[in-house]
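Bug #77: duplicate submission created two jobs. Keeping one. Sequence:
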Amino acid sequence: MTLLKGRFRWVLIIWIFVLSATAYLDRVNISIAGQFLQKELGLDNTQLGWVFSAFVLGYALFQAPAGRLADLLGPRKSLTGATIWWGVFSVLTAIVSKGMAGALAILIGIRFLLGVGEAIMYPSSNRLVSRWIPIKERGKANGIIFAGVGAGAGVAPPLITYIMTQYGWRVSFVISAVIGVAVGLVWYLLSRDEPGQHPGVDEEEASYIRTGIATSGDAAKGESLSWSTIFGSRNVLLLTFSYASFGYTAYIFFTWFFIYLNQVRGLDLKSSALYSILPFLSMAAGSIIGGWVSDKVTKQYGRWAGRCLVGAIAMALSATLVALATQVADARVASVVLAGGAFGIYLAQSSFWSVSADIGTRSAGSLSGVMNMGNQLAGAVTASLTPWIGGQFGWSASFQVAAAFCAAGAAAWLLVNPEIQLGSPAADARTLGAKSPAIAR
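Kept job's structure:
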């Protein structure tokens, strides 16, 4: 315990990284197994897109309710229950067969319900960050958490491909389920909702955490913010729009990238599995580096520069690289350029969640659930719209649309004011009409 003295909060952050990676393994495995499902169930690309979208739709629609549930139950119980839910519906995915009446509808329903269960993952993690991590460390904390996205999605292609080729696609879903339940049980034993509840946290660390968390006005009283306060906030609407543009771009990698490399760019199965790892490794690196940069810039120049300006620059970089990749003829080089786009967009990831934790305080789960709902609804659109655009106008157009949306999200970041907590007198008076700090100066 000596090594953990004063640092136990980082143990919890690292284990949320593991939970994050597991969640993305559970959701991305179907994009790798998608071709095998298509053959066995007789699905075309449009029908497979419906299956992809069903997960994202369930995930999106239940973000706000899941965020409220995370605020009420706390991250310990909510994340433990979630991992069990993921396991059940991953196994049910493996049971679907061609001989079932309405197999496609059953598969769509199962994936929708899996999405419902996964909806609580990041609102819960944000609730924990808001109570355990001082404001000046939230960029790094969120960077580590969302590196799990790249880690889980990056592990999925080689792992799922190996399991499928050796044992069949169904076994890959069962193994994903077992991993998820095991990780969830460790989380329950390891975590607590508040620093003061945990025997592993000494008074020095508890005091450091308390003094590092801003508490002002009504937001400090521990009351849940009303939905009208959350949805009426200019900051929340801007964050939600920008995160929707983020999600539209990111979900191309999570749903169609593997199939794009294999079927459109002509790479064989093993090469597709190898090159499809690159964006997810880039996402993991981008999350960590972006969080570190965000905290450094915040410390020196303030929260608007460290969170908002960093987020805007990162998303603009991503938009540029995703658009440029469509002009590259070689499939392998295009994969590298697109991986750069994935790196760019994930440089902005910690900014979204740090700002939502800062301004949401004890209702950080609810606020971030609303923000992430926009992200996931856009992702549901991506899953179904991408192959349609590709069929009508070519796959280059699919990526160019994503790049344009990403650029609009970068512009929205410049209008966000991260300094005012929702529910405080200052927010009540100024949030809906406030100018960004940069514009005000």
